[in-house]
Amino acid sequence: MQKEVADRILARDGKQSVLSLSCQLVADMVKICDISPNNFNPIPKVWSTCLKFILKKDTYQDSANLLSFIKKSFSQKRKQLISHLTQFGYKREDLKNIFQDVHIPENIRPEDLTLSEWQQLYEKLR
Questions:
Q1: Shortest CA distance to 49 belongs to which of 65, 63, 36?
Q2: CA dist 55 to 27, 59, 115, Å?
Q3: For the segment 15-43, what is each residue's pLDDT rounded down to a tens digit?
Q4: Which residues of the chain have pLDDT under 50?
Q5: Cα distances (Å, whole numbers) of residue 97 to 55, 83, 108
Q6: CB under 8 Å, gap of 24 or more: what pairs does 101-106 form?
Q7: Which residues, listed in sequence order, are joined to residue 111 by a DSSP beta bridge?
Q8: pLDDT computed for residue 37 by the predictor
Q9: Rounded CA gap, 20 and 94, in Å?
Q10: For the domain 63-125, what is the CATH code?
Q11: pLDDT value at position 42?
């Protein structure tokens, strides 16, 4: 796959995306190697990367609903998550307490949460 897509899946820049979190829900990813454009004919203008996906035996039980929650939360990813979640009917004070319970800063943006933090937050909000 294109190197930039692989980097996004692996969240190399430290910023999560719906794509990276979706992949993490079902598999562990390992970068095998980068592949030069010279290895293809015709020669593309981009590098490629080979990723290995190791499917997880035990996946999160409510992964479809978790993923739906994550997608909604990323609809305004530049906004602080706590502000965005108030649009879904959650009260700001309740959210502050939940964020504190799961050790998530109040000013965090969706792209800065790990899959584990998303799972914890989702469990508390259900």
A1: 36
A2: 4, 9, 16
A3: 999 999 999 999 999 999 999 999 999 99
A4: none
A5: 35, 14, 14
A6: 106/80, 106/82
A7: none
A8: 97
A9: 28
A10: 1.10.8.100
A11: 96
